[in-house]
Every structure is written in C-alpha cells, then in structure tokens.
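To close the chapter, one final illustration. This time we ask the reader to focus less on the individual chains and more on the assembly as a whole: which components sit near each other, and how the overall shape emerges from the parts.
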Amino acid sequence: MRQPTLRLVKPEEGETPDPVQALLREHFDGVWRLLRRLGLPQADADDATQQVFIIASRRFESIQVGSERAFLFGCALKLAARWRQAQQRPVQPTATGELDCIELDVPSVEELVDRHRARELLDLILNAMPSELRTVFVLFELEEFTSHEIAALLGIPRGTATSRLRRAREEFAKRLSRVESRLRFRGTVA
Amino acid sequence: MTDPERLLKSPSNSIATLLLRAAAEERPSAAVLSRTTEAVAAAAAAKTTTGSAAAAWGAKHAALGAVAKWMAIGALGGAAALSSVQALIAEPETKHAPAVLAPGANARATIPSRQASAARQLAPEPVVAVDPEPARPNTTEPQRARSSEPSPRDLAKSEAPARAESALLAAEVRFVDQGRAALQRAAFAEAIEQLAPYEGLFPHQQLLTEVLFLRMESFSRLGNVERARGLAARVLALGVVGRQAAQAREVLGH
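The assembled structure is written out below.
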C-alpha cells in the first residue's frame, strides 16, 4: 500500500522524495491553470487547487500508479463543475454572447502582447463556449492531453472526445474570427 | 486516429496562438503553492492524528466491552446458581437432585447466547450515545471477528441508528455552542479548554471546521500566533471557503 507522508522539508540527498509532494510540484501549475480556464476566479482557483491536492493526499493509496495526473485533473474538473453549480451560473453559450458587449474592450494586437489582456480575452471567448466543449478544448490545447486521455478522463468514447474537440476548435475559431474582424474594423490588424 | 496539431504549438503568431500562449504561461503565485503545501501537510497530520485517536478510542471501548461481557457472565452465573438453590429449596424432598442440576449444566453450555442477551440488558442506550462512528477503526475488527454473536453496541445501533445520530449531533452542537459562548465572552482560555476534548468525545466530528475555527480565533486573541497559524492551516485544509477561509488566510499572513 502506498503511504503518503508529506513533509515540508526537502528530502535529504539519497532519500526517497515524498510522493505527494512530488505530485504537488509536478502538477500544481497545471491543475490551477485548468481551474482558471474553466472559469474560476483566481481566489477560488487557489482554494480549489488546494482542495484537489488534499483529496489526492487522502486518497493516495487508491490512486493507480501512472494515473496520478488523470486523478488530479479529474478532481479539478469535478470541483469546477461543483463551483459552477454553486454559482448558479452555468456557462451558457450565446449566439451574440458577451463578445458583443465588449466591442470597445477588444484589445489591439499590441495589447495582446500584454499577457493579462490576452488571458482576459481568451476567458471571454471560452466563457461563451458550451462547457463540455470548453473543457475538451482547454484539456487538449492548453494542458496537452491527447484525445485518448481526454476520453478516459471524462469517461466518454474516444470518438465522442474527438468529435467534441473538432466542434470546440470550430467554436473557438468562429468566436475568435469575430474578435479579429472587430480588430480589423478598428484598423489594428493588417 | 491522430490528434490535430495544437494551436499552441503553431509556429504562426496568430491571435489564437497569442491568447493560448498567454494562458499557458500563467502560473499561480508562490504563496499559493506554499499555502497548499502547508494545508496538505496539515491534512496528512490530521489524518494520522484521527487514525491514532480512533484506534485509542477503539481499544478503550473494546476494553469496556470486555468488562461488560464479564459482568454479564457473572450476573448470569449468579442467576443460574440462585435458580438452582431456589429449585433445591422448592423441592427439598426430591430424591433426584442430579436431575435438577442438569438444567444448570445446560445453562452453562449455552452461556454465549444468554450472555449476549444479558449484555443487551446491561448495556442498552448509553453505548449508542458514545458510538457515532459508522466505520469502525480496523483495530477493533479482529476482536469483533472472534465473537460469534453481534456485540450489544451493534444490536443497539441497528435498533435506533437515526435516533443515536441525531442525539449525537445535538450533543455536538451544544458542546460547540459552549465554546463559542466562552469566545464571545472574551474568555479565550476557557474557550480553548472547553473545546479541547472535542476530538476525543466526538469521533464523528461533524463540526470540526467550526471547532478549529473557534480555537484559531481563541489562540489568535491570546496572542499565540504559532498555534493560531497551525489551526488556520487546518481550517483551510478542510476546504473551507468564504469568510472563515479569509480569516484563516489572514491569520496565516497571506
């Protein structure tokens, strides 16, 4: 049986590193980033990420070797879904959507170099996507899961995962092209 | 079936790539990582402590069970002897005394089942009142496995689990209320003292978050920053959000 014994100190040279701490180091950024892109504000993403690793440390014995990443991201997906329910504002895809409301806020390409502004715009586009497409898109494009891994993580057939990914990319491209057309209209894109 | 090329990896500087790169480069602050590390460590420590407390509790109650068992055997033995004596008194002229004693011998042979029924009579409700834990610690299992009959505690539990549970929750609420009242009176040391036996008294710990929070407040007000910080980390480890989480973070200095 695998025993989690988390320590705050660095292991001595030659000593076996703590497995939960190793998980924390390896996947902390990814789990947090996934939660952020699934719509959680920063403070909530901080708390939820913490919760993911607490759950992992408690259930460490039951996590199969090699599926730690899937376990952590699966937990994060569930917490994000629960967060959406608690907020009582499931992500509603809209034809016009929020994108139309931010016409004046669309940043220029120069401004997009500012990472913060770029992320704001990305979140706005993602918010307008149906949640099942958004999840697949973020897992594939940002966290670099394969469609096979996504299927396993979400418990869906691989064909469904591939189809969702295709639709998600189309949705993303469609919404992004509207932003681009506005940028062109403003004369900021050649 | 191959996956399409990721937009993130695209060599072009399209807007999509710019947006995704910005997102991929986003990192949580170091403070969040350190806080999470602390919280996970606290959770692991709490898990160990709870396990030890449960084991100790199990051992203690197994011993109490054994005492009750032997008391029951004693009572039953006494009753059997008394009935034999009464039988002898009632039938002084019977010439077949061994025939009268024979049921006594049978009674001894059937002691296990009678013992259980006597134990049921000896230890009914109070046993339920101190046993809120649905999943017992493993340490008590071998002892239960040796017994051929269900323990009185199990029987009593199956009879009125819902009643016992609600009684326990009510007791827990009263207990925590007393601690809270002490804190509101600014009697911080008293609040700490009041709440100290919580884990030992209530293995179910349905109000653990509240208790940890009240302790954190009390230690904080007494100026014991170290203890308050430890408790704050435990509060956050329980996944608390909202006002309590904000206060815990404040204590941790984040």
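The two ends of chain B are 48 Å apart (CA to CA). Residues 161-254 of chain B form a domain with the Serine Threonine Protein Phosphatase 5, Tetratricopeptide repeat fold (CATH 1.25.40). With these observations in hand, you are ready for the problems at the end of the chapter.
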